[in-house]
Specification:
Blueprint lengths: L3 E5 L2 E4 H23 L6 H26 L1 H4 L16 H19 L3 H26 L20 H5 L8 H19 L8 H17 L8 E4 L2 E4 H19 L9 E4 L2 E4 L2
Antiparallel strand pairs: 1-2, 3-4, 5-6
């Protein structure tokens, strides 16, 4: 657990940034492969253009989401707002930015939105795996104290070490990394099968909600949402909304099915059974 990969004078290259670079590079190949499986005519430059739109928007929204939930701190230290290397990128904000970027890209490249989203979400799930590994090396997105044998003591200079000095903590970021890896493997496998547009996207949001909701119980740096009927963990509220919303669409729309292709019989068109 060390956040700095290389340091040359004042210049630092952090593992956190390295994990993002790895996720972007692998994400390119994943989007290209899934896009071909789903019949999208995306050239290499198209994918790079899509990344140039979606990735910055995802990072910006992820940071703004986190800052908004911690405004009491950042309004007193505005210089910390751009300091993402200190931790503080909220995935649900990143997903909002990513959806906006995908919408812009779909119109730019003249590709149906849900078809493009289906090609992108497996890469998102894989990117989250490396992002959580980056959190682990950086010591943020940490868990609560635990007496379990795999509890980890983080360095005092890390966000986890400063919050819980010398205490073994749940490696909450690794729990989620494993869950995200399973989501990626499921989406990767299912991307080979024909389905209605939006199937992989809806499934991703449902599965991520199911992974994130229980992980949030052991998060030591949870963002809280004050509602008229009580205080709740923001990520759990978002997870419930994702599960209910996209789960309903997945089931009611029967997105796993494929519309039968019309066949011609004796000069007449007939739907396949």
């Amino acid at each position: 657990m060390h956040p700095v990969l290389v340091k040359i004078g004042p210049l630092e290259i952090r593992f956190y940034g390295l994990m993002y670079v790895i996720s972007f590079v692998l994400g390119y190949f994943v989007v290209r492969a899934v896009g071909r499986r789903r019949g999208l005519a995306l050239k290499s430059e198209d994918i790079l253009d899509i990344f140039l739109v979606t990735i910055p928007l995802g990072i910006i929204f992820a940071r703004l989401y986190y800052v908004a939930f911690n405004w009491d701190f950042y309004r007193l230290k505005p210089s910390e707002i751009p300091a993402v290397w200190h931790g503080g990128l909220a995935i649900h904000g990143g997903l909002l930015g990513g959806v906006l970027g995908t919408l812009i890209s779909s119109r730019w490249k003249k590709v149906p939105f849900w078809a493009l989203a289906d090609a992108v979400v497996p890469a998102v799930a894989l990117g989250q795996v490396f992002g959580r590994i980056g959190n682990f090396l950086n010591g943020d997105a940490f868990g609560t104290p635990t007496t379990l044998p795999w509890g980890m003591v983080f360095p005092l200079g890390s966000p986890a070490g400063m919050a819980y000095p010398g205490q073994p903590l749940h490696p909450a970021m690794l729990y989620e990394a494993v869950g995200n890896l399973l989501i990626f493997l499921a989406l990767w496998r299912l991307s080979r099968r024909p389905a209605r547009p939006g199937f992989l996207s809806a499934l991703y949001f449902v599965l991520y909600g199911l992974v994130r909701f229980p992980c949030e119980f052991v998060r030591g740096d949870a963002l809280w949402l004050n509602l008229p009927f009580g205080q709740f963990r923001a990520a759990q509220v978002a997870s419930i909304l994702l599960i209910l919303g996209f789960g309903s669409w997945l089931l009611l729309g029967k997105l796993w099915r494929v519309e039968p292709k019309p066949t011609r019989i004796a000069g007449h068109e007939k739907r396949g059974a």
